[in-house]
Specification:
Number of strands: 2
Shape: elongated
Radius of gyration: 27 Å
Largest sheet: 2 strands, antiparallel
Number of helices: 2
Structural class: mainly alpha
Strand content: under 5%
Length: 100
């Protein structure tokens, strides 16, 4: 099953590369982007669109990594609090058993 999944992923990646290649070949008109402070060199429309998708994907991965890191830190802190609380509960139960 894992081998089939890897093959499907490779085929999907190859298909996406093919679609990007066809898209870039059909959109070769050069345009420059004008920001407030500077203007870029002219590149094909497809280059700008593909670059924006890649930058967006990288930003998405970065945000996901940060959220995962925060979640793991929070989970570790909660596990430590739980362990301390369980120890206090066991100590309290032991003291109650001694008093009875």
């Amino acid at each position: 099953m894992a081998g089939l999944q890897k093959i499907l992923i490779v085929l999907l990646v190859l298909f996406l590369i093919l679609v990007a290649l066809v898209f870039s070949l059909n959109n070769q008109m050069a345009v420059s982007l004008n920001f407030l402070v500077f203007e870029t060199q002219p590149h094909g429309v497809a280059v700008w669109i593909i670059m924006s998708f890649v930058v967006g994907a990288l930003i998405g991965v970065l945000i996901t990594m940060l959220a995962t890191f925060r979640t793991s830190v929070s989970r570790r802190n909660l596990e430590k609090r739980l362990a301390r609380t369980e120890q206090a509960l066991e100590k309290s139960r032991a003291e109650n058993d001694r008093t009875l």
